[in-house]
UniProtKB/TrEMBL annotation:
This is Lysophospholipid acyltransferase family protein. One of its GO terms (molecular function) is acyltransferase activity. Keywords: Acyltransferase, Transferase. InterPro entries: Plipid/glycerol_acylTrfase. Pathway: Lipid metabolism. It comes from Ectopseudomonas khazarica. Residues 34-156 form the Phospholipid/glycerol acyltransferase domain. The keyword Transmembrane helix does not apply.
Length: 207
């Protein structure tokens, strides 16, 4: 009950504070297993993307997050495990030889959809989008039945800029694009560039 009430409070607050609008430009909100991949400029990115999904999709859509940050005892652990049902990955590679994608593959095999940020870290540069890490490619190769849907998050870094305790009143939009279709025989670099361009194409001119 507490987790459900917390989830409701978070989704309501996220929409109220950011004025978030979900724009389904190339795909529709339907219960298809997907890997939503987005640009990453704020700690609030996955919260807003998750909150922008219809309730029936949120139940089976899990954000991917770093275990080193979220598994510390207290509120963070409660939120990521009980509210968001996140998929935690070991970014520090403590276990030698462990597959860093295994937790995500297990979640996909269980029928869940995922939210990931292929830049690998928050983009605090002047570039609109950092180069993608290889994880997106390997997930697409190993689970080709899962749709890859790009999502551009616009203005969240301006709504919640670093160092401010209170958000600024600025409209935030999430643009959901068309799924990136697999191409047989496509190499890693070509795939990552194509996926990156599909995401950049959703960015507004001022982003």
């Amino acid at each position: 009950m507490l987790a459900a009430l917390t989830a409701f409070a978070i989704t309501s607050a996220a929409r109220l504070l950011t004025g978030a609008r979900a724009l389904w430009l190339g795909s529709t909100a339907q219960p298809t297993q997907r890997l939503y991949y987005a640009n990453h400029s704020s700690h609030g990115d996955f919260v807003l993307l998750w909150a922008s999904l219809p309730p029936e999709l949120r139940k089976t859509t899990r954000p991917v997050a770093g275990a080193d940050y979220w598994q510390k005892p207290g509120m963070r652990s409660f939120l990521i495990n009980r509210v968001f049902n996140g998929v935690l990955v070991d970014r520090e590679r403590k276990e030698e030889g462990a597959n860093p994608l295994q937790a995500m593959l297990d979640a996909l095999d269980g029928g869940d959809s995922l939210i990931i940020f292929p830049e690998g870290t928050r983009n605090l540069s002047d570039e609109p989008l950092l180069p993608f890490k290889s994880g997106l490619y390997h997930l697409a190769q190993q689970r080709p039945q899962v749709e890859l849907v790009p999502v551009w998050i616009a203005n969240l870094n301006r709504v919640m800029p670093k160092g401010r305790a209170l958000p600024l009143p600025l409209l935030c939009t999430l643009s959901f694009g068309a799924a990136v279709e697999p191409i047989e025989g496509e190499g890693k670099e070509a795939f990552l560039e194509r996926a990156r361009n599909a995401l950049l194409a959703l960015a507004p001119e001022e982003a």
